[in-house]
Amino acid sequence: MTEALSKLDRVQVPALDEILGVPFKVLDDGFVRVVDYMGTDESIVQAARVSYGKGTKKIKQDRELIRYLMRHRHTSPFEMCEIKLHVRVPMDAWRQWIRHRTANVNEYSTRYSVAIESAQKTPPEGWRLQSTSNRQGSAGHFPVETGAELTRQEAEIHALCDQIYKLRLEMGVAREQARKDLPLSTYTEAYWKIDLHNLLHFLELRMDVLAQEEIRSYAGTIGNEIVSRWCPLTWEAFQDYHLRGLVLSNMEIQILTACAAGQSEKAVALVKEFGLLLDSEQGMKFTLELREIEAKLQALGIAPPWGPPSRL
Amino acid sequence: MTEALSKLDRVQVPALDEILGVPFKVLDDGFVRVVDYMGTDESIVQAARVSYGKGTKKIKQDRELIRYLMRHRHTSPFEMCEIKLHVRVPMDAWRQWIRHRTANVNEYSTRYSVAIESAQKTPPEGWRLQSTSNRQGSAGHFPVETGAELTRQEAEIHALCDQIYKLRLEMGVAREQARKDLPLSTYTEAYWKIDLHNLLHFLELRMDVLAQEEIRSYAGTIGNEIVSRWCPLTWEAFQDYHLRGLVLSNMEIQILTACAAGQSEKAVALVKEFGLLLDSEQGMKFTLELREIEAKLQALGIAPPWGPPSRL
Amino acid sequence: MTEALSKLDRVQVPALDEILGVPFKVLDDGFVRVVDYMGTDESIVQAARVSYGKGTKKIKQDRELIRYLMRHRHTSPFEMCEIKLHVRVPMDAWRQWIRHRTANVNEYSTRYSVAIESAQKTPPEGWRLQSTSNRQGSAGHFPVETGAELTRQEAEIHALCDQIYKLRLEMGVAREQARKDLPLSTYTEAYWKIDLHNLLHFLELRMDVLAQEEIRSYAGTIGNEIVSRWCPLTWEAFQDYHLRGLVLSNMEIQILTACAAGQSEKAVALVKEFGLLLDSEQGMKFTLELREIEAKLQALGIAPPWGPPSRL
Amino acid sequence: MTEALSKLDRVQVPALDEILGVPFKVLDDGFVRVVDYMGTDESIVQAARVSYGKGTKKIKQDRELIRYLMRHRHTSPFEMCEIKLHVRVPMDAWRQWIRHRTANVNEYSTRYSVAIESAQKTPPEGWRLQSTSNRQGSAGHFPVETGAELTRQEAEIHALCDQIYKLRLEMGVAREQARKDLPLSTYTEAYWKIDLHNLLHFLELRMDVLAQEEIRSYAGTIGNEIVSRWCPLTWEAFQDYHLRGLVLSNMEIQILTACAAGQSEKAVALVKEFGLLLDSEQGMKFTLELREIEAKLQALGIAPPWGPPSRL
Fold this sequence. Notes:
homotetramer, 3 domains, five-stranded antiparallel β-sheet, two-stranded antiparallel ribbon
């Protein structure tokens, strides 16, 4: 390789150094802050060029190369950047967070120490209704008066849990056992270290509109406040390809092709052939998948040619 | 390679087939049951012999080979076995369990479904005192009368949490939010799939006397009831080398050598040189490490030559 | 959960049992054969239903559920299936293969045993020309006469390497050192065990038209011959969403929307605004990204509105 | 937690900054150099204290805490440090190196670029004899005269491979195919990024006396030159507990206990009971395991009580 093997200076990101250690507030008592990092956009390019060796002279622009890597899922150069965060999160959200197995974690131990004396509180305007269309989602908020009653009950449960936890400790119950009835809303803290590729995967899933609001607020903070400062070119490409992109199945490609060519009948025939529009006693029945296809067509400015949507 | 590439029959373990799906009860309302498995002792040997190729003719006995692999940490053949368990565990223990990142997991979703209506209950005789020597452990139990009061309080907290959770659901609060104040003692369920090497690592940490009693009871069941049936030769070797073995540092080797040679003064001098026995105003001070060394010497039938232990 | 915890029979896949151990030939002297497996389509559905708990009554069809899981990247249920293959591969292809870090591997050891006496031979019609448009690809084949000369040289190099390797062994050189000059075309063998999710990821990258022909022939065999028998519903969904699907960036969504609406000028303006079509002294210059966008539009039956493609 | 959430300065390790980018030469044409790093001993302590929370006031010394973490295999704090190396390694050694799946890797691509024009050369005094006691090892060296002949043959094979590789490229063979007969001794380069815990595991296996000399020379350089500068307290503890420590099985504990108590007959009886000393027609037969036990006893200054060793 032609690279000179000379003394290096460590890669610095001034925009990130400025906020090192400074907490970004999330929820009522949570936060995210950067403790340390390794690399930046430039390190991704450098790593890609180790792979490409002498061959890279033609690829002139970092931005273009980063877009290329992201588009073709050459993920290994993004793994060359690493970040370490200190987070404070309700255990309920942490249960989702920890499912990402590719991170390094040191969590605050409630065996070793007394639990953090803080549980996530929901304000009267913060109570969400069960979604009827999406079994695992929320849809809209309760009126504030009802919310106030829910918040009052929440305070009651927090008070009792706190009281009994403290009583147990006073009586000498082992911390590892005393904690067993803490509510899931109790805050925990952790050091969480992850490479950029896996962090982006985390963000893609957890910034998604279908992710739960609580963890989404953490993911949004990490993406918009931290990654955007750390690796701005990667952040831009990630938004374009992942956060705001679209995946089409081969069925969808065929349907879309028919629609774009103005062949409405063919599109409808395809939809039926693919089993997405079912005959039933009450007329045509739309599958869940067909409703998702409609949404994709609409995102592309194309009106679905099979008439008004009907309930699944 | 000389192996004939002929049609194979699938490896079966009759002792495991017999208990497939049958729950082993753990704690008051938890369980572990085997859903499926791949391979057995024989598959480990077979995989090792792929590595060794023609060279293995001499190694006659499976048991000897498995002991050799375990002793020399040739871990990859043990990864060739896989097991899938269905477990029911309090969320508090699950928080520890899930830290093992090498498993595949499908957990019951309380976003999608109503939470399991069961929380782990502690009987009056089951309350443990905080250990004073080990900050993260328990030591002994409360008298039953005190335990009865603690159990009464526990019932109170479980009742309130359950009542408010149900009330929230009745009022239409989204399940993903309604669950936020469930106690950590609430049971969850999961499919948990892991290879044998990583399972043994899990068992080594979680069957350890320092592991929390709750998760230890799951680990013990998995080891003694399941792995012992599945891969008996591996289980035997694992117990010998890991569960009942001992690790000596180089410092400990030197101290033990002096002790075994009857050189008490040299042993004491080494201990001081290594900074394990400190002079203080109140006389000699034992470090935590020295007390652990004493325990190792005693396990080998050797009396520590530096006199009676004193408190750290 | 409502599931009865009764005795289970092990999941069997008759279509796979039939070919267990039977080698599928790949390249001139390689193969892939299934040694063991765990689970099938039904296990994926079962795992998803552990997650969904009681809530799944509505989701009636396995096929629909598997498509849903794949579409929404609920990958964990696919990890509940596992397969163990025995493969024979040239080391050159194995170098690419082993980059997939999520598998368990036992490779034939040329430290322990004499290397496999077989190197991949290229027939006269099998020599490929360097692609000029894709720096890391091939394009077309050499005429057979030239190929014959290349094959003759290949035989010469194989003969010398083999001769010197054997001479070293005869002279008593350590196997671990004698092997140092074996050609990369030398065959190796391995047991390779991986879960279905990660196997599909491997297949997506290695069945791709941009993957090297040698590893592509292995990936194609694994997909078309093995996964198709093992988990037919998953294989169908995977082909639809991944192998034959399409990813659109947000830029591409905007361009496609303009094209589909017949707004050619807007489409061209967007392309310029996004920096994909550059002014240069010799006229407009197409970026590599724009050429890839053209290919996507063509796949959707849409003619790019910015005129004939020009060379990058 | 009591920690103030204030602005942080990035952790720096001056001893490592001094050698950043500077190559340490390994073998005839290889090297290892540090490109970047995250954290140091202090970060390990800091991460452990996140886990321990307020409870850590008593643990005063970093050294003591790091020894404690290593002794009790609390590995997660060591994962909070990360290092990125640029290495140049013969492909033969790289094949072993890459088996460590926990690292991030960007390797020089011989699909994209022309292969590095350098193969590892063995000097006349560097040729090793096959070990007879260890099937996968070397034992001693060839006399220089024989070595000179082996080196001459090596030069011949390198020259032919190089010549044919270049000829293929000149004729226009695709790089991805032209490389197929490069010798395993050909150098490759890579960026290799790994956390400290997994790096230590790599070093434990690859600095071991049983590891192959070539990769051992890389591991030794990484340990002695790099980790020792980066995290000196961890390096010291690692050497004491891992590189120079000893693991005893329960069988060995029992045998050692008998030996230490002067109970020779009991020790011999145990050895027979455990199946380590076998009766055969030619008298007692020592198993491989027993010979390893002898070595452990000798390391502790204890003479094996069962008489002189006999060949396995």
